Amino acid sequence: MKDFIIEDDLLIIKGDFAINDADQQNIEHLLLTQKGSYKEFPILGVGIKKYINSPDATSRLRLENEIDKQLSYDKFYVKTLDVNDLQNIKIDGNY
């Protein structure tokens, strides 16, 4: 999916917004965002920070379910999802 590129701020090249493949950026924003952050879409967002320090398997299952659900809301087809290593979550799929 082509979209605006954000690196600390909107990236501007030759006086115009940079547009490029933004799948990775969209997924990152979805994972980091808390529910309610987008006023137009109040149920959008995983809020991954609340899961990071939780050691139990139940939290990881909830996280996996929440990521899958949120990506589906965003019309992303998830082929595989691995949250066993929270420092290196693996998501394979496409828009």
What does it look like?
By secondary structure, this protein is α+β, with helices and mostly antiparallel strands. The protein is built from three helices and eight strands. The strands form four sheets. It has a two-stranded antiparallel sheet with strand order 1-6. The protein has a two-stranded antiparallel sheet with strand order 2-3. The protein is elongated, with a radius of gyration of 15 Å. This is Oxidase.
Kindly summarize this structure in a few lines.
This protein is α+β, with helices and mostly antiparallel strands and 95 residues long. 33% of the residues lie in helices and 26% in strands.
Strand content: 25-35%
Report the count of strand segments: 8
Largest sheet: 2 strands, antiparallel
Question: What number of domains?
Answer: 1
CATH C-level category? Alpha Beta
Order of helix and strand elements from N to C terminus? EEEEEEHHHEE
Q: Which descriptor suits the 3D outline?
A: elongated
Helix content: 25-40%
Structural class: alpha+beta
Number of helices: 3
In the CATH hierarchy, the third-tier topology is known as Nuclear Transport Factor 2, Chain: A
**Rg (CA only):** 15 Å
User: Would you identify the CATH architecture?
Assistant: Roll
Overall mean confidence score, pLDDT = 86
Distance between the termini: 7 Å
Task: Give the strand order, joined by hyphens, for the main sheet.
Answer: 1-6
The residue ranges in which pLDDT falls below 50 over 5 or more consecutive positions are: none
